[in-house]
Write a structure and sequence with these properties.
- The chain is of the alpha+beta class.
- It has two domains: 2-114 and 219-232, DNA primase, PRIM domain; 119-218 and 269-280, DNA primase, PRIM domain (Alpha-Beta Complex).
- Helices cover 25% and strands 22% of the residues.
- It has helices at 20-38, 91-99, 131-147, 174-191, 273-280; strands spanning 11-13, 18-19, 42-47, 57-59, 72-76, 82-87, 102-107, 119-126, 153-156, 162-167, 196-197, 209-212, 221-223, 238-240.
- Strands 3, 4, 5, 6, 7 and 13 form a six-stranded antiparallel sheet that branches. A six-stranded mixed sheet has the order 11-12-8-10-9-14, covered by helices on one side. It has a two-stranded antiparallel ribbon with strand order 1-2.
- Strand 9 (153-156) and strand 10 (162-167) form a beta hairpin.
- The radius of gyration is 19 Å and the shape is globular.
């Protein structure tokens, strides 16, 4: 599959001298870990073909030059138009996409049931550079989720924040899941009004940690586990145990050169039916 790699010595991360070949080899090395986590999902690419200091752009629709063997899915957009999006289900597809130089962002649902997500996500982000506050928010939110009999797993974004992700059964559509996520986020905020907010506008957050539940929407995406980010040092989104949170210095602690172990992501999916009834009380 070496023919899938072009311009292999092109430097994408100037400070660290990380090349296209380095990125290609990284994905080749971890493909057995990443494929089950991105398989059968529409993919949005955040491309940076000239390196992290060059132009960056999001690509949803497939290009005409994409090979015919690359799997795609026709999806309806929020604007009621249809586009063809990439689906990465095997090594060859993963390596082809890696050669395009991009972050991999995935839908929260799969191609066979696009309006019914199989995960509920909370994106935690501090309006200031205070990662300790984000870690505290992760633990506080985990307590609430646990009280609702939900077991989230934790993921660094490879950028600034943290994601708490709950595997769920595909019983409710995006609107229903988002409403439940909103209610959970508001419980967290009501218990800690001085620390947390669901306010979308940054100028209204006043140094609080933003609890973003809005990603639980049709056509919204999240960074894929183990995807690289277009940031110096090539950090990756990384799934880790909550016990490791204490020693985590930033969301960019893990990169293509230092990850050696992979936490097994929970396979049990939780029903939100009971959660929904509890929240209505």
């Amino acid at each position: 599959m070496k023919d899938l790699l072009t311009n292999e010595n092109k430097i994408l991360f100037p400070k660290n001298k990380i090349t296209k070949k380095d990125i290609f080899n990284y994905y080749k090395k971890i493909y057995k870990k990443i494929i089950p986590l991105i398989k059968d999902r529409p993919i949005t690419l955040k491309r940076f073909p000239e390196g992290i200091n060059g132009i960056k752009f999001y690509q949803k629709n497939v290009s005409k030059f994409f090979p015919k063997w690359l799997k795609t899915v026709k999806v309806k957009t929020e604007k009621n138009t249809f586009i063809n999006m990439v689906v990465i289900n095997d090594l060859k597809s993963l390596l082809y996409i890696s050669n395009l130089v991009s972050e991999i962002h995935i839908w929260l649902s799969k191609t066979d049931k696009l309006n019914y997500p199989d995960k509920m996500i909370f994106d935690l982000d501090a309006s200031e550079k205070k990662f300790a506050k984000v870690k505290e928010a992760a633990l506080d939110l985990k307590k609430i989720l646990n009280s609702l009999k939900l077991q989230p797993y934790l993921m660094t974004t490879g950028s600034k924040g943290l994601h708490l992700i709950v595997p769920i059964k595909r019983e409710k559509n995006f609107d229903e899941v988002r409403e439940i996520a909103k209610n959970i986020a508001e419980i967290l905020v009501s218990k800690n009004i001085k620390k947390y907010t669901t306010e979308v506008r940054k100028n209204k957050r006043k140094g609080k940690v933003f609890i973003d539940y809005l990603r639980n929407s049709y056509a919204q995406t999240t960074i894929a586990p183990y995807s690289i980010r277009a940031i110096e040092n090539a950090p990756v989104a990384y799934v880790l145990d909550f016990k490791k949170l204490k020693n985590l210095k930033s969301s960019q602690d893990f990169n293509i050169n230092n990850i050696k172990t992979f936490l097994k992501i929970p396979t049990k999916s939780f029903s939100l039916k009971l959660v929904s009834s509890i929240l209505k009380k």
